[in-house]
Automatic annotation (TrEMBL):
SUPFAM superfamilies: Porins (SSF56935)
Family per similarity comment: Belongs to the TonB-dependent receptor family.
Domain TonB-dependent receptor-like beta-barrel: 326-799
Localisation: Cell outer membrane
Domain spans labelled TonB-dependent receptor plug: 82-202
Range of residues in the leader sequence: 1-24
Keyword Acetylation appears in the UniProt entry: no
Bilayer topology: Multi-pass membrane protein
Entry-linked InterPro entries: Beta-barrel_TonB, Beta-barrel_TonB_sf, Plug_dom, Plug_dom_sf, TonB-dep_rcpt-like
This protein's UniProt keywords: Cell outer membrane, Membrane, Receptor, Signal, TonB box, Transmembrane, Transmembrane beta strand, Transport
Name of the protein in its database record: TonB-dependent outer membrane receptor
Length: 841
């Protein structure tokens, strides 16, 4: 779509700038804790506002709504609104997320922010953990904060080849949605402020801190077209005060979803097909494409109290438990006839405990500086299991096999300590400046325990082979950091911000990062802004050390450690940090009072990107896997055996455009209509391909597509929120642009077809290009407020049951893998209908 037509669209249908949405439907706790001016100190049920010292409000910034929230992300300045920011920031309120109709936080953000997407479906254990992609980059390149503190990541690595391979992101769904006051999304490189991972942007989750009130919610729904995928969620949060000005806010949530199983036909069950095995089993026995079944409980406790004059203590505790199960490909009765005479579908499971605790002290006058001292410990522990399975080689040698095994256990922890200072002053009594500086220490620890012997011995269990003792180990590193930031106002209408950060990693060395941001308000209706920065992302401990073997009905895939002999035999080298350079420029307009438009262009160059190197197939892969000590199962096709490893594969350039607009239309007796529009255009290209230790390129045509074209080229969200009397209606139109994948030719490809001198079936030099064409999704929610306490809503997401295009026959493994699960456009689940009740006391 041409830029001209997109700009024209903003004059017809305007979109929500999330900060304005916050003013339209602000949560009660926001009103209590974020007044229009000054710093805030909560004391029991009373809020004390201390006026900020020197930083002036921009004289041309129109404050159309006094409830608009202050931001704390991407700046150290006081009293900065999202509209006044030098970098593009969106604010999503709890009400906005609730109206998305999604029960999971990650899905709710995807529904409301165009720069964020998720994969159509995860693979293997990767399907059991939520992750988001920003601006088409890897989930590892998005930094997540909770109340401004770095959040620990999951230990469950995404091991399968694809655009998310290697990611161990923060699992947003482990934070109870009922605890969230609002979310600030910074779409800008911010490594100079926050350190590693902040290449694509930053998601800062701000939790509720009110010492009063009780809120409860219940929602249930299902896929109406399939009649499955039932979900329900129960949530509650409330606060109370103690000892005068102390406060505690407790939030809890319980969530459950059943499998949602699309209709597919496994070709092995169809008589007359060349792969038909002669067994009379249902055609839909293969449920590999179903969404996982999941049960999750979440809890958070936020607390604080003034300890002495000018010093406040605070803390946060979060805990979550998840049990989840995902189907693997159906195994025919011939695989383990003594145990499963009718065949079986292995289930990959996760038993997960995720917890974190923060304790801190903050004050407002240490030689004139406000200060914040905190310590945060967070960890994620995962038992990965395999049930309804069998080990065929073990049956052959011993006559028996376990049917339920623990395949491996992971644990990843982060202990982060911060000391921050901030002060407002004037240079020569003329130039207002906010100075901030501080330091950080982080200890990261990663540990792998092997699975039970039956899970890996003699080729391992079907669906997922467990990790061997050779795969296990414990690794750790220390990270030391220091930063300095200065926010200047050289002129009345001009803001200039400089930030610098130094970090030392005990395993990958030093890095220095800087950022320069500026904004100039030309008139009260026109402002321009720009940022240039460099950043980095250190390789994660799982990327450096993880290795595994995954077994399919016809083959296997091995992920090799970069430091092991097996990986080195295929050309693996020691991982280096990614290095990025980002530039962004934008304009902010208010053509008429209340109509806000922002447009920002950006470019992100990343050098030495970490991703899965192009897979090696056949005898080379078999030899490398054997070097790990693993044994492949019998009866597989050698051409369907692959191996790869993580590498600094090359350099990429990401270019794009963000446009946001909103207008609140007051229609008097006909209510209020909040019209919003958000657009992200995004394109990534590979600018350089690195070579391995053997001189071979790390990337091939398939892995290049993983990096460049599996994310939508565009995403548009048009939203209309109408309130009249006791009724409210939310209508949302979302357009996902095209994605393109280079897929492997699968089992249904005739062996007689050749390409570049080899069989096209499972070829590693020729791939099938597959495009998911653009799709519009329609969401609708209708709500009714019975009184000030009770609100009822019914809704439907993806009313018309849009799904991705189905794969062609040659690309559809076993006939049951009907969708391109590597793309991050629309999901495979189709339409979802729900009902929700909210109560506030």
């Amino acid at each position: 779509m041409r830029l001209k037509s997109l700009l024209l669209a903003t004059t017809i249908v305007t979109v929500l700038h999330p900060a304005h949405q916050a003013s339209a439907a602000v949560h009660k706790s926001t009103k209590a804790t974020t007044p229009a001016k000054g710093t805030v100190k909560t004391t029991g049920k009373k809020t004390v506002v201390r006026q900020a010292a020197a930083t002036p409000r921009r004289p041309h910034a129109v404050d159309s709504n006094s409830n608009e929230q202050m931001i704390v992300t991407g700046t150290h300045a006081f009293n900065r609104r999202a509209r006044d920011s030098t970098s593009p920031i969106s604010v999503l309120t709890a009400a906005t997320l609730r109206r998305s109709g999604q029960m999971n936080l990650a899905d709710a953000i995807v529904r409301t922010d165009p720069s964020i997407t998720v994969n159509a479906m995860g693979a293997d254990a990767g399907a059991l953990t939520s992750s988001i992609r920003m601006r088409g980059l890897n989930p590892n390149e998005v930094l997540v904060l909770v109340d401004g503190k770095r959040r620990h990541t999951t230990a469950n690595i995404y091991a399968d080849a694809g655009p998310q391979q290697g990611s161990t992101p923060v699992d947003l769904n482990m934070i109870p949605a009922s605890a969230i006051d609002h979310i600030e999304i910074l779409r800008d490189g911010a490594a100079a402020m926050y350190g590693s991972d902040a290449i694509a942007g930053v998601v800062n989750i701000i939790l509720k801190k009110t010492p009063h009130g009780l809120n409860m919610t219940a929602q249930t729904g299902a896929n109406a077209y399939n009649g499955d995928g039932w979900q329900y969620q129960l949530g509650a949060d409330g606060g109370f005060g103690f000892l005068g000005d102390g406060y505690v806010h407790i939030s809890g949530q319980m969530y459950h979803t059943d499998h949602m199983v699309p209709n597919t036909t496994d070709v092995r069950t169809v008589p007359g097909n060349s792969e038909y095995s002669g067994y009379n089993v249902p055609h839909n026995s293969n449920k590999i494409l179903s969404t996982p079944e999941e049960t999750r409980e979440n809890l958070s406790i936020e607390f604080g109290k003034t300890l002495t004059e000018g010093v406040t203590g605070y803390g946060l505790i979060t805990y979550a438990h998840r049990h989840s199960e995902a189907y693997e490909n159906y195994r025919m009765p011939s695989v383990a006839p003594t145990l499963y005479p009718y065949g079986f579908s292995p289930l990959e499971t996760i038993e997960e405990n995720d917890y974190a605790a923060t304790l801190g002290l903050k004050g407002d006058n240490f030689f004139g500086f406000s200060w914040d001292l905190s310590s945060t410990y967070g960890a994620d522990e995962d038992d990965i299991g395999n049930k309804n399975t069998a080990n065929p080689n073990l049956i052959a040698s011993t006559g028996t096999s376990p049917t339920t095994v623990r395949a491996e256990t992971y644990r990843l922890s982060q202990w982060t300590n911060n000391l921050d200072f901030r002060r407002q002053l004037k240079i020569a009594d003329l130039v207002p400046v906010t100075v901030a500086f501080g330091g950080e220490h982080r200890l990261e620890t990663y540990q792998i325990w092997p699975g039970e012997v039956g899970s890996y011995a003699d080729g391992g269990t079907q669906g997922y082979a467990g990790l061997m003792p050779e795969n296990a180990g414990k690794w750790s590193r220390d990270v030391w950091a220091a930063y300095l930031d200065g926010d200047f106002h050289p002129l009345k209408h001009w803001d200039l911000d400089f930030a610098g950060r130094f970090e030392h990693y005990t395993d990958v060395g030093n890095t220095e990062n800087g950022k320069v941001s500026t904004r100039y308000d030309i008139t009260k209706r026109i402002a321009v802004r720009a940022t240039i920065s460099n950043g980095f992302r250190a390789p994660t401990l799982p990327e450096e050390n993880f290795s595994s073997l995954n077994v399919s009905p016809t083959g296997a895939s091995g992920l090799l450690s970069t430091s092991g002999a097996a990986g080195k035999s295929l050309g693996a080298q020691h991982l280096k940090p990614e290095r990025s350079t980002s530039a962004e420029g934008g304009i902010i307009l208010e053509p008429v009072d209340g109509w806000h438009i922002s447009a920002d262009v950006y470019q992100i160059n990343i050098r030495d990107r970490i991703s899965g190197a192009g897979s090696v197939y056949g005898d080379s892969a078999i030899s490398a896997i054997a070097m790990t000590g693993a044994t492949l199962p019998t009866g597989i096709t050698s051409a369907d055996v692959s191996a790869n490893y993580f590498a600094n594969v090359g350099s990429t350039r990401t270019q794009g455009l963000d446009i946001q607009s909103d207008y609140l239309l007051h229609m008097h007796q006909y209510g209020n209509l909040d019209l919003t529009m958000a657009l992200n255009l995004n394109r990534t290209r590979v600018s350089h391909i690195n070579t391995n230790s053997q001189g071979n390129p790390y990337l091939n045509e398939q892995s290049i597509a993983y990096l460049t074209s599996t994310s939508p080229r565009s995403k548009i969200i048009l939203n209309a929120y109408w309130t009249i009397g006791k009724w409210d209606v939310n209508v949302r139109q979302t357009r996902y642009g095209e994605t393109t994948s280079m897929l492997t030719y699968q089992d249904q490809t005739p062996a007689s077809l050749t390409c570049k001198g080899q069989s096209l079936q499972y070829s590693n030099v020729c791939w099938g290009q597959f495009k998911n064409t653009p799709v519009w999704l329609t969401d609708l929610e209708v709500g009714y407020r019975l009184n000030h306490m009770w609100h009822f809503a019914v809704g439907a997401n993806n009313i018309f049951n849009q799904r991705p295009r189905r794969l062609t026959k040659y690309l559809n493994y076993l006939g049951a893998n009907a969708y391109d699960t590597d793309s991050s456009g629309i999901g495979i689940a189709g339409g979802y209908y729900y009902g929700r009740i909210n109560a506030t006391f």
